[in-house]
Amino acid sequence: MKFILSFIIILSYSVCVAQKFTSEKNRVSFFSSTKMEDISAWNEKSLSIFNLANGDIAISIPVAQFEFDKSLMKEHFNEKYMESEKYPRAKFQGTITGFDPAKAGVQIVNVTGKLTLHGQTNHVTVKGTLEKTNDVINAEAKFIVKLDDYKITIPRLLWQNIAEQVEITASFTYKPLE
Length: 178
Fold this sequence. Notes:
There is one protein chain. The protein is α+β, with helices and mostly antiparallel strands. It has one domain (21-176): Beta Barrel (Lipocalin). The protein has two helices and ten strands; from the N terminus they run H-E-E-E-E-E-H-E-E-E-E-E. It has helices at residues 2-18, 71-81, and strands at 20-33, 38-43, 47-51, 56-62, 67-68, 89-97, 107-117, 120-133, 136-146, 165-176. It has an eight-stranded antiparallel beta barrel.
């Protein structure tokens, strides 16, 4: 009897762990365009966990780890706009709905939750895609963030160089948590 009870406990634990996936590869990027200049940056240092059983997802992005083509842009981004010493991480915590891991192919999903950026938290809903192949889940989403919603101010002298909103593209490859 003890053996059966132990086996059930171990099996239920392994099923719970098998339902959780962590990001192995990821890329979060942003792009903004103005008449004066396009600005883009990317970050491959994010961390994420996705619970397949209930759809819960959490993402943490180290703000200072965004890479730019020009070092001066990175410096201004961290010091003047994002204040990354004061607000070192962007975070998302929410739920993915509309995904059936038993189905093959790319599935359109809804991602709903709270995005925290520059010390401000807002509720967001984003469409994205998920595709499960064997034990790998690829997730992608593209959405717009308005800087004013997160109290990111643009100095008057640079209003023509910095867009009021940026397009965010997120791509995560998840593998089972071991």
